[in-house]
Amino acid sequence: MGHSPTLLEVAQAITSPPYPTWSAVGIYGVFVLMILGLSHVLPGTVMQGQPFPQVWTVAGKPNRKTYKLNGLLVALSLYAIYIVGGLLNIWPLTLWADHYGDLAVFVFLVVVVLSTYLYVSAKVSGRGHFTASFVNDFWSGVELNPTIGGVDLKMFALKLAMTGWILMNISFVAKQYQLYGLVTNRMILYQLFTFIYMFDYYFFENAMLSTWDIISEHWGFMLVFGDLWWMVFAFSVQNFYLLHELEPLSTPGVLAILALFIVGFTIFRISNYQKNQYKTNPNEPLIFTKGKPETIEGRLLVSGLWGVVRKPNYVGDWAIAISFSLPCGFSYLFPFLYPIYLIILNIHRAIRDDEKCSEKYKELWKKYRQRVPYYFFPKII
To answer: Which of 27, 101, 139, 332 is most buried, by CB atoms within 10 Å?
Structure first.
């Protein structure tokens, strides 16, 4: 493999400087306000989330939050506004790509300030769950669902993450066309895959309410950084390699990458759909299965793909992530930052999940591990 550029070198590949500017403040500020405004005015499905752990109860009853789910409409509306504004020369369609460097640094500062605010405000007000370790509390967070002005920051940040990622990608398509007067099949593949991923995420936005992130993870620096910075600026690094790579992929190459994406997406979607089905209606037959879902003593699902391995959704997500990077080729390691990160993150999360469930379910978890012994791949691991 050739020399793999650093994040700083990647940022310098675009015209903006790798330090915060007032332009970055304005661009990101308008972006946040538009997401906030569109989320408020556009219609959406109102749903209750899953019950929080027992410590989050009200008058002895499970505490549930109510969410307005309109992410897809918000995202598509914002993309339409951005593209139409660009075509009318109100702003350049390459705006986000042109300001990648200063936006990246400014948003990182936002992450630090926001994470500090979350910790200090929880400490002063007496909210949250603190441990003896400041580092752990700052990193992992002390509140499950912090709010500002009635806005659930965790769910709102997910809108900023997913929408900002695709907005950055759109900007790079425009950048390649501006520079060369064409858009390569490599770039098209990457943009198609990421757009489908975004669309699927928001189309099944209700499934997010039953995920580990929403139910169990406190919102501290780790998730703030992941949502606001990592997903927008690190997940989009493939664009830098696709931008100047004008040699098209061969037809067999396109078909192979497309096949990997389809297989991964199918596993990812079916497994997540089955999990959400079980959590929302445990007596309903899972998609592509017959009869009542099979469980361990009515508590742990072992039907469908969840009876094959413990984390089938992770495996599908890995295949999708790899397909995002394959259009860049194998000359550099850095375009594979996203799948490498995702695999490490998921393995770490699977281990943490196993420890947590072992403590929660005791002997029941031992039975579950005997019934489904492998994390990711049958007979392997």
So the answer is: 101
Whole-number Å distance between alpha carbons of 302 and 368? 8
> Are 314 and 346 contacting, i.e. CB atoms less than 8 angstroms apart?
yes
Whole-structure pTM value: 0.88
pLDDT tens per residue across span 111-170: 999 999 999 999 998 888 899 899 999 999 999 889 888 899 999 999 999 999 999 999
Q: Are 70 and 78 in contact (CB under 8 A)?
A: no
Q: What average pLDDT does the segment 51-66 reach?
A: 59
100-116 pLDDT tens trace: 999 999 999 999 999 99
Q: How many CB atoms lie within 10 A of CB 379?
A: 6
Beta strands 45-48 and 66-69 are antiparallel
Main-chain dihedrals φ then ψ at residue 62, nearest 5 degrees: -55, 135
- The rounded distance, in Å, linking the Cα atoms of 93 and 98 is 9
For residues 24-61, one letter each, b for 16 or more C-beta atoms within 10 angstroms of the residue's C-beta and e for the rest, the string is beebbeebbebbbebbeeeebeeeebeebeeeeeeeee
CA distance 107 to 167: 15
In angstroms, the CA 306 to CA 113 distance is 40
What number of CA atoms fall less than 13 Å from residue 230's CA on the CB side? 14
Grouping H, G, I as helix, E, B as strand and the rest as coil, residue 141 is: coil
Taking the domains of the chain in order of start, what are their residue ranges? Answer: 1-246, 249-381
